[in-house]
C-alpha cells in the first residue's frame, strides 16, 4: 500500500514509534527513523519486517532543537525525495505537582511533545501539497483529551498537539493531505515503565502490583494498548479509506476517555 512512499517517524528507536515504523515498513514505505535509543537495533528490527524494496534510514536529530529538525528534513529529502508520511511521535513525560515543576522540564516537554511537530509539519507540508498526497499523524495521548494531576506540561502539550492537528487538518482540507491525532491510553513502553517503577517505589509494591494499580486507576479495559495496535491504526490513516478522516483525535485507550 505504501510502496515508493517515505515515512519519517520521530522518536522511533523504541515503544510506539518503533511499532508504527514497523507497521508502515510492512506496507512498503521507506522509513526514516529517529530517537535517542539504540539506532542500529531499531533499524534492524524495522528492516526485518519491511516489505521487499523498502529501505530504512536513521537521523539522530534532537527534537527539541529546531535547527537539527531542519537538517533532518533536508537530509531525508535529499535521500528519498520527500516525506509522504510524517509521524510526530517523539515525546517525554515529567511528573510533579505544579508548584514543584521545574521550569526547564516544562520547556523540554513543550519543545519535544509539541513544538517539534510544528517544525516538522511546516517543513514537510510544502512537498506533500505539491504531490497532493500526504499523511500527518500526531501521536498525542488520552491526555490530549482529559487531564491527570501532576502532569501539567504533558497534558498541556498533548491538548495543544490535538489543537495543532485540527488547524493543520483545516488548512489542508481541500488537498490530498490529511492530519489526524492518535490518543493512546496506557502502552507499556519505557516511558510508562518509568512511571510503574516510581509507583512501585512510592507505594512499596512489586512490579506486577504497581502495573495493576496503574491500569485499575484509569483504564477500564485493564489492558495496555500495544504498539502493534497503534501501528495498525496509523496504517489505516494512510489508506485510501481514510482519505476524508481529517482533524480526528482518535483514542485507543481501553475506554479511559469514555468515563
Ligand atoms: P518511549 O520512551 O519508548 O519512546 C520515546 C521516543 O522518543 C524514544 O525513541 C526516544 O529516544 C525519543 N525521544 C525522546 N526525546 C527525544 C528528543 N529530544 N529527540 C528525539 N527523540 C527523542 O515512549 P513511548 O511511550 O513509545 O512514547 C511515544 C509517544 O507516545 C510519546 O509522544 C508519548 O507521549 C506518547 N504516548 C505514550 C503513551 C504510553 O502509555 N506509553 C500513551 C499515550 C501517548
Automatic annotation (TrEMBL):
Gene Ontology biological process terms from the UniProt entry: monocarboxylic acid metabolic process
Q: Which Pfam families match?
A: adh_short
Q: Which domain of life is it from?
A: Bacteria
Q: Which SMART domains match?
A: PKS_KR (SM00822)
**What positions does the domain Ketoreductase occupy?**
5-176
Where does this protein have coiled-coil stretches? Answer: none
GO function terms (MF aspect)? 3-hydroxybutyrate dehydrogenase activity
- Database matches in InterPro entries: 3-OHbutyrate_DH (IPR011294), KR_dom (IPR057326), NAD(P)-bd_dom_sf (IPR036291), Sc_DH/Rdtase_CS (IPR020904), SDR (IPR050259), SDR_fam (IPR002347)
NCBIfam families membership: PHB_DH (TIGR01963), PRK12429.1 (NF009093)
State the PANTHER family in the record.
3-OXOACYL-(ACYL-CARRIER-PROTEIN) REDUCTASE, 3-OXOACYL-[ACYL-CARRIER-PROTEIN] REDUCTASE FABG
Hey, which family's this protein in?
Answer: Belongs to the short-chain dehydrogenases/reductases (SDR) family.
This protein is called: Dehydrogenase with different specificities related to short-chain alcohol dehydrogenase
The scientific name of the source species is Serpentinimonas raichei
Amino acid at each position: 500500500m505504501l510502496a515508493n512512499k517515505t515515512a519519517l517517524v520521530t522518536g522511533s528507536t523504541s515503544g510506539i514509534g518503533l511499532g508504527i515504523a514497523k507497521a508502515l515498513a510492512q506496507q512498503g514505505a521507506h522509513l526514516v527513523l529517529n530517537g535517542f535509543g539504540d539506532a542500529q537495533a531499531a533499524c534492524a528490527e524495522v528492516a526485518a519486517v519491511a516489505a521487499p524494496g523498502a529501505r530504512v534510514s536513521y537521523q539522530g536529530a534532537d527534537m527539541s532543537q529546531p535547527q537539527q529538525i531542519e537538517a533532518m528534513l533536508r537530509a531525508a529529502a535529499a535521500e528519498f525525495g520527500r516525506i509522504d508520511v510524517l509521524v510526530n511521535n517523539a515525546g517525554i513525560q515529567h511528573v510533579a505537582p505544579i508548584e514543584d515543576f521545574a521550569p526547564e522540564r516544562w520547556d523540554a516537554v513543550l519543545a519535544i511533545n509539541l513544538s517539534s511537530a510544528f517544525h516538522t509539519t511546516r517543513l514537510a507540508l510544502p512537498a506533500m501539497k505539491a504531490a497532493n498526497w500526504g499523511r500527518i499523524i500526531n501521536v498525542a495521548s488520552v491526555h490530549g483529551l482529559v487531564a491527570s494531576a501532576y502532569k501539567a506540561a504533558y497534558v498541556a502539550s498533548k491538548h495543544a498537539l490535538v489543537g495543532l492537528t485540527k488547524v493543520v487538518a483545516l488548512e489542508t482540507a481541500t488537498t490530498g493531505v490529511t492530519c489526524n491525532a492518535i490518543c493512546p491510553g496506557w502502552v507499556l513502553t519505557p516511558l510508562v515503565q518509568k512511571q510503574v517503577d516510581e509507583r512501585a517505589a512510592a507505594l512499596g509494591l512489586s512490579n506486577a502490583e504497581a502495573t495493576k494499580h496503574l491500569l485499575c486507576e484509569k483504564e477500564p479495559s485493564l489492558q495496555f494498548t500495544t504498539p502493534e495496535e497503534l501501528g495498525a491504526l496509523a496504517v489505516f490513516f494512510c489508506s485510501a479509506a481514510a482519505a476524508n478522516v481529517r482533524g480526528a483525535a482518535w483514542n485507543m485507550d481501553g475506554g479511559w476517555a469514555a468515563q
